[in-house]
Specification:
There is one protein chain. The chain is of the alpha+beta class. The chain is 26% helix and 40% strand. The protein has one domain: Roll (Pnp Oxidase, Chain A), CATH 2.30.110. The N and C termini lie close together (11 Å).
């Protein structure tokens, strides 16, 4: 299915409602981690991760990842709505890109003190990662059977 501007807007609006995603990685063994994320209009996702975590070690060996984002408050009896995707993850090394992500982080996470580049570079051992999505799937059991599951290439 072609990702139209209408679909893109729908997906972006869904993603704005949540801050936590499940990140699936694989190298020798599969691993999943919950991480806070940012995203941009081109479906690039950003997250912080320590190089010592299993998921970041896996990404260093195999950049293929999967992610899911759903409302954890959905009841088993509710009609399910969610987001699934896959893509390629890389560590961000560009200072310019790190600064841009910090600005976006501060706009999205108003519930914590603002992050500065100086603080980020001195205090955090975590590294910024970028996931360039290749495939997106939205499911919404509230929609018609034809539109309940939709998948797009990015």
């Amino acid at each position: 299915m072609k990702l139209t501007s209408k679909h893109k807007k729908e997906v972006l609006n869904y993603l704005k409602n949540y801050k936590l995603m499940s990140l699936g990685t694989y190298y020798k063994e599969p691993w999943a981690a919950s991480v806070y994320y940012l995203f941009d209009e081109e479906f690039n996702f950003y997250f912080l991760g320590s190089p010592n975590t299993i998921h970041c070690k896996n990404i260093a060996k195999n950049p293929k990842v999967s992610i899911t984002i759903a409302d954890s408050r959905q009841k088993a009896s509710d009609k399910k709505v969610g987001f699934q995707a896959r893509g390629l993850a890389t560590k961000i090394n560009s200072i310019t890109e790190v600064k841009e992500v910090i600005i976006a982080w501060n706009k999205r996470h108003l519930d914590v003190p603002p992050l500065t580049f100086k603080t980020f570079s001195k205090v955090w051992k975590s590294k910024l990662h970028k996931i360039k999505l290749t495939d997106i799937k939205m499911f919404d059991e509230n929609m018609s059977e034809k539109d309940e599951e939709r998948m797009w290439k990015v």
